[in-house]
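task queued by scheduler; priority normal; single chain, no ligands, no partner chains; default sampling; output format set to structure tokens
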Amino acid sequence: MALVGNIQDFGLSDFLYLVDRGYKTGCLHLKRGNDAAVLFFEKGKLVFASQGTGGQKGDLLVQLGKITPQQLEQARQLQSHNGNGMSLSQALVSGNIISQEELQQSLQTHIEEAVVYGLFGWPDGEFRFEHGQKPEADTPVMPVPVPVEHLIMEGVRRIDEWGRIKDRIPSTDMIVRFVDQPGEKAKGVKLAPEEWRVFARINGKDTLAMIAQKTNLSDFDVCRVVYGFATAGLVEVVKKPTAPRGAADVPRVKRSLVSRIISRIEKM
């Protein structure tokens, strides 16, 4: 019998604790309006998650650029020839298509960043837990299941941090651009590799969501980095223009300005 309810009454973190402590195996179905997600657990630990009711299968690894369509087909053929319940992940590793370490890292990062942590921001939503339901054979499960304590702690931390960030950056549909005169706080700025990736994509016309897509970072990470830039007085975040603009009206970032900012940071 399925366990049903609403996360407004029974929080997601509370439910995850229940799954963990009960050593549960099954699938948690979540739905809020047009949004949906599924999370699969094996003995209390997360093995796979995806957005949408159908779930992403082996194609996910192709989309992430970790394997080619030909390699995916090779793994599927190995599965069918094995005939004893081999999972897609086992086929990929045993066929030397991808190492277990790379498969684990790729899936865990994507599942955490693109699916799970976003769910902690849902104020409400229906849930249904189907006990004993397991992923289909074509699902690339994580070789090493992830403890839910890690997910809960990081998810709660992000919700707290999101609260501060959204006071200044209420939407990822906003545009970030350099200020003409960087503030005094910019003198102490030293950029990490991840911050350089975001910095290099700031052009005064791309939204935060577009920067996240181009840098292959999560919305949260891009907003966190830009929030730091804004606090240091390097950039400002403004609303996206609502009316269409002509090519001559599109804001452009002067190369001299960017060069001055980069030069100033590198000399600090």
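post-processing summary
- The two ends are 62 Å apart (CA to CA).
- Residues 247-251 have pLDDT under 50 and may be disordered.
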